[in-house]
Amino acid sequence: MPSHAVLDELHAPHIATETLEQAILRHIDEQAVIGLDTLVILLSEYSWSQIFHVVDRLARSGQITLRRHRSEYTLFSTHYAA
Fold first, then answer.
1. How many CA atoms lie within 13 A of 65 on its CB side?
2. Of 18, 41, 22, 20, whose CA–CA distance to 30 is shortest?
3. pLDDT tens-digit series, residues 44-63
């Protein structure tokens, strides 16, 4: 296996996460408020756990607001006046 192939494999998960992060931020910017279940449907090429992992990281870093009401999660743009 060529050495560049190994490097590509090592960096692939990070690249995929960045792409997912950008897609999540785009959907939130477009809609201001979106349910996690809706986001999972819109980003069906990713698993629920992949999406939630990125959503959790975005919320912890202050880039989005994540709220839970009973068993439902809702994502808010930081520009949304709640």
1. 10
2. 22
3. 999 999 999 999 999 999 99
